[in-house]
């Protein structure tokens, strides 16, 4: 792999890591909040699509 | 003949048609729950097509060779860093002027995503600059103003979380976001106003873009894909934040009920 391809690969890997970490964080937060909300107020959670 | 109209559903006050209708958390959760899967799928599909086009089917540059493929990540990140900041300023204005509760949450959840996108813009620019300019970093006007933009994103993310009362943090963050808008034209026109190592605009300029369509089209597809991913991330984070706020309210109400029960 040439120096150029190493830089190209590093750029795409960084973008995938950064956006992937944000997506994973959002998904984990979402899942935890959905479960807690379903336990606290199951009817409202089901109605709002948060269950 | 009695002309009094019967009391029907039509006589009820009309539902608000502005963005204030989404101030209702339940309505926002229902609407965002419908939109988010489609937005995420669109982002994944467009990004997959755009990245494949950029890496495998677009030609190498006659001067830069394969290194030009960094452009398909770097330029969308730069556009999102600036466009996202403009969205932050608009949300902050909506929060300050109309006291829209969702605008506060949107701004709060937008800034970490904006900070990551701006960091990616700086990092990929550095990775592109090393083989092309012979240096990772130079203190020219474009790079320095984007670094300031990154600090503004970080400052906003930290400031809105620095207060015990979320409303005070949101207000301080909104003021910072509005002051920071002055940096956007500096970023955009820095390459025209000062002599910089960074090249001038080649896509977003008056007249035709100075780029061949074989590179321009995959760049636009990548930009659309990253923009959809950015929107999906911010929507997912805002949705989680609305649920977390509701959880806090429910837990507070339950604690008060238990406290009253114990007092009685």
| Multimer state | heterodimer
DSSP, total strands of chain A:
0
- Our count of helices of chain A gives 2
Q: How many domain regions of chain B?
A: 1
Query: What general outline of chain A do the C-alpha atoms trace?
Result: rod-shaped
Low-pLDDT residue intervals, each spanning 5 or more residues of chain B: 1-13
Helical residue percent band of chain B:
over 70%
Radius of gyration of chain A over all CA atoms, rounded: 19 Å
Encode the helix/strand succession of chain B as letters.
Answer: HHHHHHH
Specify the structural class of chain B: mainly alpha
Instruction: Enumerate the spans of chain A where pLDDT stays under 50 for 5 or more consecutive residues.
Output: none
Mind describing the biggest β-sheet of chain A? Answer: none
What is the averaged pLDDT score of chain A? 86
> What's the end-to-end separation of chain A, in Å?
48 Å
Distance between the termini of chain B: 59 Å
Largest interface between protein chains, with number of residues from each side: A-B, 31 and 42 residues
Question: Could you state the order of secondary-structure elements of chain A as H and E?
Answer: HH
Question: What overall geometry of chain B do the principal axes of the alpha carbons give?
Answer: elongated
Largest sheet of chain B: none
Range of strand content of chain A: under 5%
Transmembrane segments (chain B): 35-57, 77-98, 110-129, 141-160, 172-195, 215-236
Pfam families (chain B): Cytochrom_C_asm (PF01578)
Membrane topology (chain B): Multi-pass membrane protein
GO molecular function (chain B): heme binding; heme transmembrane transporter activity
């Amino acid at each position: 792999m040439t120096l150029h391809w190493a830089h190209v690969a590093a750029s795409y890997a960084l973008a995938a890591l950064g956006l992937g970490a944000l997506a994973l964080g959002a998904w984990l937060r979402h899942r935890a909040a959905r479960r807690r909300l379903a336990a606290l107020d199951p009817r409202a959670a089901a109605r709002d699509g948060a269950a | 003949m009695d002309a009094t109209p019967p009391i029907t559903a039509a006589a009820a006050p009309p539902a608000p048609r502005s963005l204030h209708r989404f101030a209702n958390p339940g309505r926002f959760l229902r609407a965002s729950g419908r939109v988010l899967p489609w937005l995420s799928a669109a982002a994944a599909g467009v990004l997959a097509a755009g990245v494949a086009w950029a890496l495998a089917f677009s030609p190498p540059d006659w001067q830069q060779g394969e290194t030009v493929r960094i452009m398909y990540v770097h330029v969308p990140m730069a556009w999102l860093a600036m466009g996202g900041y403009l969205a932050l300023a608009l949300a902050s204005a909506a929060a300050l002027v109309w006291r829209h509760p969702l605008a506060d949450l949107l701004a709060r959840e937008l800034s970490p995503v904006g900070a990551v996108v701006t960091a990616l813009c700086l990092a990929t620019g550095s990775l592109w600059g090393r083989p092309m300019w012979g240096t990772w970093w130079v203190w020219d006007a474009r790079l320095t103003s984007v670094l300031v933009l990154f600090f503004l994103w970080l400052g906003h993310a930290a400031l809105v979380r620095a207060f015990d009362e979320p409303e005070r943090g949101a207000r301080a963050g909104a003021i910072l976001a509005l002051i920071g808008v002055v940096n956007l034209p500096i970023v955009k026109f820095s390459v025209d106003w000062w002599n910089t190592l960074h090249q001038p605009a080649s896509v977003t300029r008056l007249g035709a873009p100075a780029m061949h369509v074989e590179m321009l089209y995959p760049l636009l597809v990548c930009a659309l894909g990253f923009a959809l991913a950015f929107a999906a991330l911010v929507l997912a984070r805002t949705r989680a934040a609305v649920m977390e706020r509701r959880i806090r309210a429910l837990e507070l109400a339950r604690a008060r009920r238990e406290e009253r029960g114990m007092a009685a």
